[in-house]
Automatic annotation (TrEMBL):
Organism: Nymphaea colorata
GO CC aspect terms: nucleus
Location within or outside the cell: Nucleus
Name of the protein in its database record: CCT domain-containing protein
Domain CCT: 30-72
Keywords: Nucleus
Feature: compositional bias, Basic and acidic residues: 28-37
Gene Ontology process terms (BP): regulation of flower development
Region Disordered, residue ranges: 18-40
Nucleus found in the keyword field: yes
PROSITE patterns membership: CCT (PS51017)
Amino acid sequence: ASGCCSTITEAAAQGIDTRNPNESCSAAEREARVSRYREKRKKRQFEKKIRYASRKAYAEKRPRVKGRFVKSTEADPVEPASHYSMEWFHP
């Protein structure tokens, strides 16, 4: 490797085959690779994509506290007795 490119993306943009650097390619082949890279770059998807609808449905049903999943027993915590009430006192 001659070190001309700092990243694999730059190497792909320049048409360099990162699998075997000892072989060189023709100008036409290089142009084809660069154009293929540019076309694929245009089609990149950065939006959220749901792959498993069943997992999403299950996650929506699970109890949460502040956005985090909790066990069913932790979902409805019992309010502690007020300091001023006499609920704690049993004569």
